[in-house]
């Protein structure tokens, strides 16, 4: 147990980190709810370009923490990187709030968000780990609450920013509302930054070695200069699809090369665990292709083919804007997480808990059900518009599948990868997830709707055909996961025997 930090101080330190994480997720998911719509409806992008720009951005968001975590540990300090990242994120959302339809300005703003995320994301998580270092009984609970703060922030913002956009557009004309919504994201980060600065004394007992030393202005200048170059690089990747594809392919080969090298050069006692991690990581990559549909094809489906009016027994209950349907994911996650935790505990007490590989197989089968629900949405459509309840049901199954597959990805790295290469492999995992985010955009483009097609009756089968195929794709992933179970049992047994 980390006896150097009293329990009371641990609690206050964690509360500070959870609050700024809540506001950071408020900003990010508030932007995510609108950005594809903004590109299609305001910038006039084709669906295909909007999907790939957003997916390339998502890939960069996952890749950047691998660098930001190292900067926090070795260069500037974990706490300083968290604060600097929050400041840069606020600037990035602020740039999106500046009224403009210039793509270089928009992509540069997204590049600033990539850099801010890279500095913020890994270092907040690392601070949580440092607060409870050596106390396994508390760290699991802490990360559960940490994950809850993520979902609280994302739920509120995904419901709020579409409303702000629609309200301001209705009052002051189309255009301003988009930028006011992005401004709300920037203000959220500013509030989070103010919160952590006012409570900074609660973090005095945690941090990395550079946090204990005076700030080196030369190193800060180097990090900011590198960040500026990264912004330019990100803008180029987002502007030119060929560059984005090349980036993703190179990253994919690098990750596979890293695994091949580590498996070949590692000790015999470590190879079984690394091979098991590789198999499960590849399955996780396939899952995130499904995950990326939430902000691409499913988001555009909600825009064009979902009736936002919720009614029951002939009584109108409420109405949602298309962008607000993405909030169903964190809502379901918050509702299902306690149930799943209880089920894990009960199964474990009875000696019937599934292995991670088994949970992956079950998770993919549940994801398949979710996409089949979307696939049959046309059966409930009136004039090309399907019921909002279809979205609730589909997101429910999809979110449960996410908890079983996507939510266990980091647990795979922690369980099977040797501690001496843990940090390095975490970075490789995030790069792999970033690649799958881009591939998810490629898949979403199979449901790209031409600009001249606006009739919901015509767009509906374009989406339902893709969702049905994705359902069958998840069935194939389930079959592969089941087929890999015997091998996984052998590799896990060998790994545990040498642990």
TrEMBL record:
Q: Where is the signal peptide?
A: none
Any single biological process term in GO: tripeptide transmembrane transport
The record's principal subcellular location, in a coarse class, is membrane
- Membrane-spanning intervals of the chain: 22-40, 52-72, 81-98, 104-120, 141-164, 176-199, 220-240, 246-263, 272-291, 327-345, 357-377, 389-414, 426-446, 466-485
Has UniProt tagged this entry with the keyword Cell membrane? yes
Which SUPFAM superfamilies does the UniProt record give?
MFS general substrate transporter
**MF terms (GO), sorted A to Z:** dipeptide transmembrane transporter activity; peptide:proton symporter activity; tripeptide transmembrane transporter activity
Q: Which UniProt keywords apply?
A: Cell membrane, Membrane, Peptide transport, Protein transport, Transmembrane, Transmembrane helix, Transport
What is the membrane topology here?
A: Multi-pass membrane protein
Gene Ontology CC entries for this record: plasma membrane
What is the superkingdom listed in this entry's lineage?
Bacteria
Protein localization = Cell membrane
NCBIfam families cross-referenced by the UniProt entry: yjdL_sub1_fam
Q: Write the protein's name.
A: MFS transporter
- Specify the species: Rugamonas brunnea
């Amino acid at each position: 147990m980390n006896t150097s930090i009293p329990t009371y101080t641990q609690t206050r330190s964690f509360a500070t980190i959870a609050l700024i994480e809540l506001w950071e997720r408020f900003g990010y998911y508030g932007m995510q709810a609108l950005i594809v719509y903004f590109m299609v409806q305001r910038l006039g992008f084709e669906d295909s370009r909007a999907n790939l720009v957003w997916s390339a951005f998502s890939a960069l968001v996952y890749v950047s923490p691998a660098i930001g975590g190292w900067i926090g540990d070795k260069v500037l300090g974990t706490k300083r990187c968290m604060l600097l990242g929050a400041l840069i994120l606020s600037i990035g959302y602020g740039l999106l709030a500046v009224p403009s339809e210039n793509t270089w300005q928009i992509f540069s703003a997204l590049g600033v968000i990539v850099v801010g995320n890279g500095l913020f994301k890994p270092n907040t998580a690392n601070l949580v780990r440092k607060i409870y270092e050596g106390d396994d009984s508390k760290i699991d609970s802490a990360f559960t609450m940490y994950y809850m703060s993520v979902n609280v922030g994302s739920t509120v913002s995904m419901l709020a920013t579409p409303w702000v956009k629609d309200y301001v557009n209705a009052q002051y004309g189309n255009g301003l509302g988009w930028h006011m919504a992005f401004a709300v994201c920037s203000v959220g980060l500013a509030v989070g930054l103010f919160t952590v600065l006012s409570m900074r004394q609660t973090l005095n007992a945690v941090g990395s070695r550079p946090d204990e030393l005076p700030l080196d202005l030369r190193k800060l200048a180097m990090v900011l200069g590198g960040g500026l170059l990264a912004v330019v690089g990100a803008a180029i990747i987002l502007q030119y699809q060929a560059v984005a594809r090349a980036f993703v392919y190179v990253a994919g080969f690098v990750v596979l090369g890293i695994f091949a090298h580590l498996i070949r050069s590692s000790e015999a006692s470590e190879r079984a665990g690394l091979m098991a991690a590789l198999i499960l990581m590849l399955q996780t990559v396939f899952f995130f292709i499904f995950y990326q549909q939430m902000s691409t094809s499913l988001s555009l489906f909600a825009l064009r083919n979902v009736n936002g009016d919720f009614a029951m027994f002939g009584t109108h209950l409420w109405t949602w804007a298309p962008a607000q349907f993405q909030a169903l994911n964190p809502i379901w996650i918050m509702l299902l997480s306690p149930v799943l935790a209880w089920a894990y505990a009960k199964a474990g007490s009875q000696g019937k808990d599934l292995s991670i590989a088994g949970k992956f197989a079950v998770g993919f089968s549940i994801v398949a059900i979710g996409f089949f629900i979307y696939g049959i949405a046309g059966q409930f459509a009136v004039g090309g518009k399907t019921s909002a309840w279809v979205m609730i049901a589909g997101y429910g199954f999809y979110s449960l599948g996410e908890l079983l597959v996507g939510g266990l990805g980091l647990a795979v790295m922690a369980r099977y990868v040797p501690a001496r290469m843990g940090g390095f492999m975490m970075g490789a995992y995030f790069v792999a997830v970033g690649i799958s985010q881009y591939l998810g955009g490629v898949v979403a483009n199979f449901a790209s709707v031409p600009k001249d097609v606006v009739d919901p009756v015509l767009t509906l089968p374009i989406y339902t055909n893709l969702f049905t195929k994705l359902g069958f794709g998840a069935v194939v992933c389930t079959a592969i996961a089941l087929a890999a179970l015997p091998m996984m049992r052998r590799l896990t047994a060998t790994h545990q025997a040498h642990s």
